[in-house]
Write a structure and sequence with these properties.
homodimer; alpha/beta; nicotinate phosphoribosyltransferase; TIM Barrel; 2 domains; seven-stranded antiparallel beta sheet; six-stranded parallel beta sheet; 19 strands; 20% strand
């Protein structure tokens, strides 16, 4: 993906820069923080995603002639500000939670240090990326935990915007899904892609048998045949007759799944197709997947519910100025005064406190005035530091970007999940699995 | 926006083409239809959006060297199929509901006629576009109807993926919103953009007064000042003192809005700022907007709820093969046999039956075998035809694309809304406002 990302931005970011350049405050060094005030209703934990994508998008946040000309024509900012924008590229520092990390209310997920003008312009992009991707990853992680090791494929591209489909496939993969139907996600992020045929393919042919023959001819007997276009039992019989007992899998996309799946397994076994897998794909979410735990399902395909965050389509993260330097160069913690939208000013650091069994017990957020004025906490065996440098002087740490960063995030998520207390994985509504404490 | 859209596609579309090319069925002329089996839970009507964007994306659905190389390397299809893909561009016909049209369960929103291979490949793109954009437009239309003529601005970019943010701004505009915060939506689709400052701008300054002075200096006294960073009453007093009684507007982003808004109006009037407007932006949705109908609000800014479809983030549309020619050239209506996922085979046409007051009473769907085998219905005063040609031989009708098409869709939506029965605009859950009848 290429091209400027500078206009994926709310207009007020640029008008603030415009006004702050005029009175000189634009150059005050500032700390901005992204965090979630709360988890989606009843969830026990969230999973950070979007970070690797974001770093790449920030590197492409440049105003080229096309963007400047449009801003000039529409008088979004003063001409002097256009000159400043023309030279803009982000040169600050970003640190925060690793992609794939678990998070809780108040976790300081991302901190940006730069001049006010440099940092504030990134607000919309930071939040678009973290909110959407974390929403998908947080929902996906719950599906992964109830799937009990059975593989999951993301196939919800058709239920979300064509661009967000790619991001959703990536976020679900980080959360532990194994594959996606989306080809661009395969190309851009190295995610395994899957899929063989829809009902249309069967309906195109004069009979189900002809359709199966055509598919096996092209894709081989290890393919997955969709057996529920007409009658499932007849579909299974035809599938094994056409492909042989070495048939890779059958897919079921409708019906009362627990019952149907059991019957199909019995039928496959009776036909000798004992190694033929069963994959199901009918409007699944974490609850219906859990309900299938006792059924002989081999893998799941999940669409709508994962790409829409299963009831929580935005993760609710906000991006706030938490500290800035005054004219004397001292850091001043700042926060909006509001009861309903409280935020905690000042620089943050964070660690997860683990007990002797390496189980997470507390999210510790350390408060300071600003980067230069606070001591670091001392990590020890039971205090795992959560914040890592992501970008220095505007240069992304390459270990977090691209397909490699995506795989690293997936691996990190797998480790972190083992650390969460067992209550975290309950599906029912409840409180965050561990409390957040400010020190 | 440029670049190939061909990989924004589920893998199984290409494997179906692969297998169908091998047995020759790929070239069977086919009719695919996009429709929604039902409206989101309790909704009375939906609003079609995404059509104009889709037509542009289809014109860019081409496999260039980069796409072909990736498909070859990952062995998604056989080499012979790659040659076919290299020559592919959509050359078929598309007709359907105009963008901005109201729709109901079963409304035949989009019909594609082309060979199977040509048409099936567009499935993912068709559904991504229609599902997401219609979800936003359908939620936005409800907000517009309860806003009772007060202007609405879409400002949810930060709550959805950076690409879907642009599509959401466009869909909300079609549904009757007046502006967006998203600059790319302004550039790409000609939508008016708005926004002045966030809390960070006030917190950057040593006092609220200094922040307001800086903003008025740069943006003029007609700007909108955000008055709730500290104490709202003091903020309003400072705003009028700094900008004068000609201040454009104050924005309130927190607090118990009905109470706060009334107090702010009284205070502004007492200060002589009788023409200063009040805009509110605090986590609004159709229900909280309705609750403010008696308060002296002048305009609304809506974020999360509109870009996430206010509880229905995907419109639930599906894309089905409904008819195809057999080897003799006759059209054969086809449909999957399933009780839970029923669809009606065959070609459709549609009209809305209006009564003598031009109020919609029925969604009529006319069934036929295929394009050549069915009589057209006779439109009359009380039968408004709903389907129009959108693309012929792969060429989009330019009146539906670009900023002009977006404006046309917005105007069409405004007309259509006047036609709906009054029950359609009730916020509470209920049945579709008119029944769908098949003939």
């Amino acid at each position: 993906m290429t091209g400027s990302t500078a206009l994926f931005t709310d207009r007020y970011e640029l008008t603030m820069v415009d006004a702050a350049l005029l009175d000189g405050t634009a150059h005050r060094e500032s700390l901005f923080e992204a965090f979630a005030r709360r988890l989606p209703d009843g969830r026990r934990y969230g999973v950070v995603a979007g970070t690797g994508r974001l770093l790449e998008l920030i590197e492409r946040f440049r105003f080229a002639d096309a963007e400047l000309e449009w801003l000039r024509e529409h008088e979004v900012v003063r001409p002097a500000t256009l000159d400043w924008l023309a030279d803009y590229r982000f040169r600050g520092d970003i640190w925060g939670y690793r992609e794939g990390e678990a998070y809780f209310p108040g976790s300081p997920l991302l901190t940006i240090r730069a001049t006010f003008a440099e940092a504030v312009m990134l607000e919309t992009l930071v939040l678009s990326t973290l909110n959407f991707d974390s929403s998908v990853a947080s929902a996906a992680a719950r599906m992964v935990s109830v799937a009990l090791g059975r593989p999951l494929a993301e196939m919800g591209s058709r239920r979300t915007n064509e661009g967000s489909a790619v991001a959703a496939a990536r976020a679900a993969y980080i959360a532990g899904f194994d594959a996606t139907s989306n080809l661009e996600a395969g190309r851009a992020w190295g995610i395994p892609t899957m899929g063989t045929a829809a009902h249309a393919f069967t309906l195109l042919h004069d009979s189900e048998e002809e359709a199966f023959r055509a598919q096996v001819e092209a894709l081989g007997p290890k393919t997955t045949l969709l057996v529920d276009t007409y009658d499932i039992a007849r579909g299974v019989e035809t599938a094994v007759r056409v492909a042989g007992t070495g048939l890779g899998a059958v897919r079921i996309d409708s019906g009362d799944l627990p019952t149907v799946v059991g019957a199909v397994r019995d039928q496959l076994d009776a036909l000798g197709a004992v190694d033929t897998k069963i994959t199901v794909t009918s409007d699944l979410d974490e609850f219906t997947i859990a309900a299938l735990s006792g059924a002989p399902v081999d893998s799941y395909g999940v669409g709508t519910s994962v790409v829409t965050g299963s009831g929580a389509p935005a993760a609710g993260m906000v991006f706030k100025l938490v500290a800035r330097r005054d004219d004397g160069g001292d850091w001043v913690p700042v926060a909006k005064a509001s009861t309903s939208k409280a935020s905690v000013g000042g620089r943050k650091n964070a660690a997860r406190r683990l007990d002797s069994t390496r189980t997470a017990r507390e999210e510790l957020v350390f408060l300071g005035d600003g980067p230069d004025g606070a001591d670091e906490f001392a990590p020890d065996d039971q205090l795992r530091p959560l914040m890592v440098p992501l970008m220095r002087d505007g240069e992304a740490d390459a270990s977090f970007t691209g397909p490699e960063g995506t795989r690293a995030a997936r691996a990190h998520r797998a480790e972190v999940m083992q650390e969460l207390p067992i209550e975290a994985f309950r599906l029912g509504r409840g409180e965050p699995a561990i409390p957040t404490t400010y020190r």
